[in-house]
């Protein structure tokens, strides 16, 4: 199947379960399901439109609860065929929702604080959710190569999922990435192509490849498969509510890179309300950025509707998108729900990584330091209500960003004797 | 409570669920539950004796299936109190049993090949299972400090679990460990004490500390809490059988460090048979070592009953125990079940890590390279039957042993142009 940039009505019908069509988020124009991401009318972003009309609430709840311990328990709400759980895929999700009582005490939160810990995914980041979803779309469209541009988590998620599913993978990265990151991406044995240039050059090249016959049969998970890929983030909303006993949290703190994850979590919560799976009551969504890449936070504070791009300079590299595509939608959701968008310094990020590890035994990636740091800041400022149920996302694993806490070391060095032990005051 | 090396009958009664007593594996002498690990009669190792007499098979199965998605679903079969799932702990387990069809094709296994992937645990190794168990024993005995000697996975598991449960932790390591390993162990904020000496010096010091008043109130997870700690490995057997649909696998390949894990998996399988939860039919247990530390494999091949210590020299550091305490028991189990013990070179370990990543998208620690490498070798040799259901354990995560595959790199470097892309033969 040839790759298209905009939708046409000639796309053949595919079985992606309840997904009925692609719909433009700007103008509402609908087209058939296909490997397209921009509206032919207005060039707005396309997203999945579903037909959930046949579902009975209690039957649906029972079906979900009887499903597998991964994102496919929500297959009835995702753009995937009915038998998805039996196809070879990385099967992420159903990660732990940790009741973080020690952290709550430190932050002064009394209404219940939870960490949704996505470091438990197969390649230890939330990217497994979106890639698993994109893989099913790629399969439906007859693609044989899974691809992306990446500087980290996404490369590993694409490499692993492609390996499991028997796809070829071809991941593009800047050629001068750190050796450790190259190893993590290369170990799955797909093509790993270094591009002589920076990350912008890599992205520009990928866009060119998608429009070229050389890219035929290629599914770029976050470009021509983006509408499907992005839906993977809805599963975070579903899991949080089901793990709370089919209850909406009052407040959720979500990291912002492109902003897609935050908008899809909001979409997922709204779907659960519409389907009657949770009670319809208000919830507040909070966005978290690092100060060194805080275009959405800056716009929120300035009262702007548009997001002014920034040149990223932060240790939170998995969030370092200076021109976030979904920024305006994030602003809208934060304002509509009564939430906020806030940022923290790199120093606060590191402090928050240590705080989470020390209180809950969870070693988070820098992105997790951002959400925990922002949570602390917003509680102190009285913006987050400490008496309400609050969920904080940790989207990645500290083992991938060891440099952030490289200063952490031995608390004492002693000779192997009890005298030395006592002298060090350890008894 | 004072720390004791051998059991006495004066230990107060504690509630550890179905655990009835400690029983000597050598002479069968029984003593009350307490923080002891060696028999007062013969100095043999103590292990938990259970009272399972009250269980009805179908009620027990239903109770397990309705339990949480972690090891506490098996609380009725573990030395833990009934309400364990509600206490603060790291809650490991219920990790994925991956049907490894691609790997099976490469190895020529037709009877069903599965990887039990324990990299999905909270700190990404099977050590979370045993530490979670030791933590509950520590709580029952009134200890307030959790401790161990370690060079890697165990340090992280103890640090994380202690943090979550509100225990003090104090981990002893050789002072000159690699900085990355120190960071992974230190981030949880407990005491991390470097000992001027090698790993043997660290262990010797810990044994001294346990016998000294300075060690009062300290639970050393793999010393004075060892009988409880070791039981955590039984949960691997339970999960494998439940995930196979309450069915025994025909063959299991298990890594050998001290040998404890292998003996406890065998114990777990036997319990499931006795309880009627699985059909009573033969299974074979295979042990896997790295050639550079293969004392059990050497004894197996030589037909010996005793294990001659070796000085370890292998990249599989998490298995590098030259004098494995449970070696003789491992030999007995491998022979009794019709299994075997085999070893592979470091080069084969690295090849096997790559093979597993390339075929199944699972990035294993060196220990996983050992089990997959041994599986490949045993199939080739006709020792493992390729027509039988086979389970291979991956007990750790590749992110912790990146050095093993450090040579992995870019498959191509190109300029950001389609011409350069075509020249590289990537189209």
Automatic annotation (TrEMBL), chains A, B:
Its cofactor is pyridoxal 5'-phosphate. It is an enzyme of class 4 (lyase). It holds the Pfam family PALP. One of its GO terms (biological process) is threonine biosynthetic process. Its EC number is 4.2.3.1. This is Threonine synthase. It comes from Streptomyces monashensis. The keyword Lyase applies. Belongs to the threonine synthase family. The modification N6-(pyridoxal phosphate)lysine is found at residue 127. It comes from the Bacteria. Residues 92-396 form the Tryptophan synthase beta chain-like PALP domain. Keywords: Lyase, Pyridoxal phosphate. GO terms for molecular function: L-serine ammonia-lyase activity; threonine deaminase activity; threonine synthase activity. InterPro entries: Ser/Thr_Dehydratase (IPR050147), Thr_synthase-like (IPR004450), TrpB-like_PALP (IPR001926), TrpB-like_PALP_sf (IPR036052). CDD domains: Thr-synth_1.
């Amino acid at each position: 199947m040839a790759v298209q940039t905009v939708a046409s009505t000639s796309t053949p019908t595919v079985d992606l379960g309840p997904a009925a069509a692609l719909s433009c988020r700007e103008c509402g124009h609908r087209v058939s399901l296909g490997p397209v991401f921009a509206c032919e009318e207005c060039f707005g972003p396309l997203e999945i439109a579903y037909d959930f009309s046949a579902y009975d609430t209690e039957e649906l709840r029972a079906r979900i609860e009887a499903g597998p311990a991964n994102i496919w328990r929500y297959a009835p709400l995702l753009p995937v065929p009915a038998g998805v759980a039996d196809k070879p895929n990385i099967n992420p999700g159903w990660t732990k929702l940790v009741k973080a009582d020690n952290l709550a005490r430190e932050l002064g939160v009394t209404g219940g604080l939870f960490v949704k810990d996505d470091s438990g995914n197969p390649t230890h980041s939330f990217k497994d959710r979106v890639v698993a979803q994109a893989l099913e779309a790629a399969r439906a469209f007859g693609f044989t190569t899974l691809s992306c541009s990446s500087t980290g988590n996404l490369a590993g998620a694409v490499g692993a999922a492609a390996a499991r599913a028997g796809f070829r993978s071809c991941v593009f990265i800047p050629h001068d990435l750190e050796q450790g990151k190259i190893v993590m991406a290369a170990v799955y044995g797909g093509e790993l192509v270094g591009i002589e240039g920076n990350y912008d050059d890599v992205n520009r090249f990928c866009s060119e490849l998608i429009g070229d016959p050389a890219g035929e049969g290629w599914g770029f998970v976050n470009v021509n498969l983006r509408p499907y890929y992005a839906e993977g983030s809805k599963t975070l909303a579903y899991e949080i509510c089901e793990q709370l006993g089919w209850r909406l949290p009052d407040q959720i703190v979500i990291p912002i890179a492109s902003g897609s994850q935050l908008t899809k979590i909001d979409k997922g919560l709204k779907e659960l309300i519409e389907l009657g799976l949770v009670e319809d009551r208000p919830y507040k969504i909070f966005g978290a950025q690092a100060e060194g890449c805080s275009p959405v936070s800056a716009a929120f504070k300035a009262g702007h509707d548009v997001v002014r791009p920034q040149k990223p300079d932060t240790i939170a590299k998995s969030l370092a998108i200076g021109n976030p595509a979904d920024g305006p939608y994030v602003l809208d959701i934060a304002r509509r729900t009564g939430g906020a968008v806030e940022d923290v310094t790199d120093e606060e990020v590191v402090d928050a990584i240590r705080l989470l590890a020390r209180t809950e035994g969870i070693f988070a990636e820098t992105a997790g330091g951002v959400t925990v740091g922002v949570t602390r800041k917003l509680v102190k400022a009285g913006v987050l209500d400490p008496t309400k149920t609050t969920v904080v996302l940790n989207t990645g694993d500290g083992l991938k960003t060891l440099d952030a806490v490289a200063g952490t070391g031995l608390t004492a060095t002693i000779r192997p004797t009890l005298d030395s032990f006592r002298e060090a005051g350890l008894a």
